[in-house]
Design goal:
single chain; 301 residues; alpha/beta; Rossmann fold; seven-stranded parallel β-sheet; 9 helices; oxidoreductase activity; NAD(P)-binding protein; SDR_fam; KR_dom; NAD(P)-bd_dom_sf
Length: 301
C-alpha cells in the first residue's frame, strides 16, 4: 500500500504511546462523540491512559454507553468518566449536551469527532439516493459542525486560557476514488473534512489546532458487515492505533498538522522530520493540487 511515510503501522508504538510524557493529557477534559464501542471507546481509554482529568463519552444507546463508562471507571479510578446520551443526528440533542456542560462549568479542551452514519448503496437512481444522502449529511456534516461551533464558542473568560484541539476521525473514503457504493458516506465525510480544513485557514493553531485523521482499517461494527472474502483480504489494524494517534495528535507536537488530512498508520516521527514540506499549502489537504491557487482566488474574487 502506498504511504506518505516509509513506515506504515498497524499497532501503537513508542512515539504515540499514551504513557509517553510528551503525550500527557493531565488537567484536560476530552469530549468524544461516539465513544460507546470500537474506535471511540479505544480513544477514550487512550486518553485516560494519558492521564486526562475528565473524559466525556457520548453515544445514542444508553445501555451500551453506561457499560462503556463502567468498564473505563473500573480501570481508571483517578480520572472522571462522564457518559452523556447524545444523538448527533438531532440538533436539539447536541445543543442539550453543550448546555449541560456549560451549566456545570465544564470546559472541553479536546473534541474528538468519531460518530458516523455509514449508510451504503448505489448513487443511481438518484431519486432513491437523495434521502440517504440527506440523512448521512445531517449526521456526518451538520451535526458535527454544530458540535464544533459549540466547542469553539465556549466562554473563554470563565476558564484558564488553554489551547484546544479538534480531532476528526474521518475516513479514506473522503478522498478515495473510486468509492463504490459509498457515495453518501464519502460525500458527507469529505464535506466535513474539507469544511474543517477551510476553518483551519481562519483559526491559528495556537487557539485550536484541527486535524482530519483516517483511522486505518479497523474491524468495527460497520466493517463486520463486509463480505467475508473482503474481510479475509484486509490486513486489519488494532483499534489502539488510531486511539494512541489521536492522543498524540491532540498534543502541541502535532501543531504542524493543523488543517491537514493524515492517516493514523503513518509514522509520526517521519512526519515531524518532514515539517519543511508543510510550507506547501496544499500538502496533505483535500482538493485539486498542482494548480496555481492565486489564479483561482483571482477569479473567485
Amino acid at each position: 500500500m502506498a504511504s506518505t511515510t516509509n513506515i506504515f503501522h498497524h499497532s501503537p508504538y513508542a512515539a504515540i504511546s499514551p504513557s509517553a510524557i510528551e503525550n500527557d493529557q493531565s488537567d484536560r477534559t476530552i469530549l468524544i462523540i461516539g465513544a460507546s464501542s470500537g474506535i471511540g471507546f479505544a480513544i477514550a481509554k487512550a486518553f485516560l491512559q494519558a492521564k486526562a482529568a475528565r473524559v466525556i463519552l457520548t453515544g445514542r444507546r444508553t445501555e451500551t454507553l453506561e457499560q462503556a463508562a463502567r468498564t473505563l471507571r473500573g480501570s481508571f479510578a483517578t480520572s472522571e468518566v462522564v457518559p452523556i446520551v447524545c444523538d448527533v443526528h438531532a440538533e436539539h440533542s447536541i445543543r442539550s449536551l453543550w448546555q449541560r456542560l456549560l451549566l456545570n462549568d465544564v470546559f472541553v479542551d479536546v473534541l474528538v469527532i468519531n460518530a458516523a452514519d455509514t449508510s451504503s448503496g448505489p448513487i443511481y437512481p438518484l431519486r432513491d439516493f437523495l434521502p440517504q444522502l440527506r440523512t448521512a449529511t445531517q449526521t456526518n456534516l451538520f451535526g458535527h459542525l454544530l458540535a464544533v461551533s459549540s466547542f469553539l464558542d465556549q466562554p473563554q473568560d470563565k476558564f484558564v486560557s488553554k489551547s484546544k484541539a479538534i480531532i476528526n476521525i474521518s475516513s479514506f473514503a473522503a478522498h478515495a476514488n473510486p468509492s463504490p457504493l459509498q457515495a453518501a458516506y464519502s460525500v458527507s465525510k469529505a464535506s466535513l473534512a474539507h469544511t474543517l480544513q477551510l476553518l483551519a485557514d481562519e483559526i491559528s493553531f495556537n487557539e485550536c489546532h484541527i486535524i482530519n485523521v483516517h483511522p486505518g482499517a479497523v474491524l468495527t461494527e460497520a466493517a463486520e458487515k463486509a463480505p467475508q472474502e473482503v474481510k479475509d483480504a484486509v490486513v486489519w489494524d488494532e483499534p489502539e492505533l488510531p486511539a494512541a494517534f489521536s492522543v498524540w495528535a491532540s498534543s502541541k507536537q502535532a501543531n504542524f498538522l493543523h488543517g491537514r488530512f493524515v492517516w493514523g498508520n503513518w509514522d509520526v516521527e517521519e512526519l515531524m522530520e518532514r515539517k519543511a514540506e508543510f510550507v506547501d499549502p496544499g500538502f496533505l489537504k483535500l482538493g485539486l493540487q498542482g494548480i496555481d491557487a492565486t489564479i483561482a482566488v483571482f477569479f473567485i474574487g
